[in-house]
Amino acid sequence: MAAAREFPKYDKPLLAGFGASLVAIGLGIGSGEFVLWPYLSVHYGYGILWAAIVGIAFQVFINIEIQRYAVVTGNSAVHGFLKVSRFFSFWLIFSTIVGFGWPGFAAGSSFLFSQAFGLPGNVAEYLPYGILLLAVGLLVIGSNSYPRVEKFFRFVLPLTFLLMVGLTVYYFDPVKMTELLAGLIGKGSGYQFIPEGIDLAVFLAAFAYAGSGGNLLLGQGYYILKKKHGMSQYGEKSGLVASESPRSLHHFKGVRRLITIENILVFGLMGLITILMLSYLGPIILQGVSVEHGLAFIVAQGTVLSGKLHPFVGLLFVLSGAVALFSVQLGVFDTLGRITADILGKPELLWYKLVIIVQGCIGVCIFLLGLREPLWLITIGAVSNALAMAVIAAITLWMNRTHLPVKYRPSLLEQLLLGCIALVYAGFFMVTVWSYLVK
């Protein structure tokens, strides 16, 4: 039996412990926040925004439970999955590749960069390959990629957030804001909750990406360990067990409080506000403008902003979308690299870098096959990620209630919530797939 050690006390300032959720919401802004939710609000109005609240609340709770396992054991959630069954080594790799192997974020990022700077066709043709190469390079150079990833998001997110706040204040309209608030309880223009004729795949994609999405959530287990919270202070995979003494449980409650506050404020609240601001702006900026399909609606918003405010504002808006999409591609590569390396028992060494390079090569092959429509690629990935999150919620529930010391396990209410989340994601996935099979 593994030796028991006291659960370490967290004795740093609150903000110093933040970081994991910052990376997670950075991944979300490039998928659901900047692309899918504004796309839906432009085409269907604000009545669908209730689902953004539900989706992001689900992910906040999943994140907290993934991090519970990590801080109590000093191991990643992937390590816990493999203790449940070795089958999950295959499932995690397969579901991550299916969910994120499509280089839709690199395609979208290159499209927006090309449009922002008016790049000629021969340059734009090869830019997606350059985006993939840049993402691979940032992760494989050096021995520890996490500090670079966190610094990237600490720089990009505040700038993006401030831009959206400024635009929201400038375009503030009491009538439109009232419509948006009504949308938070499912009241749309001529519909309740779900408009007739909505593309269920895109709606599910937005729901799945309200926050981060798919196996990217498992990155929370890695990132919280990188911050040296809980038992990871003794070293990752130390094999030690947190003692159940009153002192240890008191220290755990402190770390648990930190994790909860960070996830609610950074991942949940910041993510939701970003969704609402971008969804609010889309229909207002594009009022009276013909809206094209795909990511062209982001470019159209930039064009309007250039004309009404200043060319620099329009350029900055489109570039924010390009950088946001690139950030997701970066996080996708990093997460699959960590998952695969963890399964093989060699995190951040040869296999981590090799997997990232292979992902880049797969992306290149997909581009060479002519599959470059960003929204289509992102939607395909998101639908499969809904199933992946159902599995994550279910297995996290199982390992937290069976593999943790008794006093560190989730309460009955927390277990019921996690189980319900798993059922909702699984049910939503099956309804969406069935709607396409019967067409």
Describe the structure.
The chain has 439 residues and is mainly alpha-helical. The chain contains 16 helices and four strands. It has helices spanning 20-44, 50-73, 77-84, 87-100, 104-117, 121-140, 146-170, 174-183, 200-208, 219-226, 246-285, 296-308, 311-344, 350-368, 374-402, 412-437; strands at residues 4-5, 187-188, 191-192, 241-242. The strands form two sheets. The protein has a two-stranded parallel sheet. It has a two-stranded antiparallel sheet with strand order 2-3. The model has no long low-confidence stretch (mean pLDDT 85).
Features:
439 residues, mainly alpha, Amino acid/polyamine transporter I, two-stranded parallel ribbon, 4 strands, 2% strand
Task: Summarize this entry quickly.
The chain has 16 helices and 4 strands.
Overall 3D shape? globular
Number of strands: 4
> Which CATH class is shown?
Mainly Alpha
Instruction: Give the biggest beta sheet.
Output: 2 strands, parallel
List the helices and strands and how they pair.
Layout: E1 4-5, H1 20-44, H2 50-73, H3 77-84, H4 87-100, H5 104-117, H6 121-140, H7 146-170, H8 174-183, E2 187-188, E3 191-192, H9 200-208, H10 219-226, E4 241-242, H11 246-285, H12 296-308, H13 311-344, H14 350-368, H15 374-402, H16 412-437
Parallel strand pairs: 1-4
Antiparallel strand pairs: 2-3
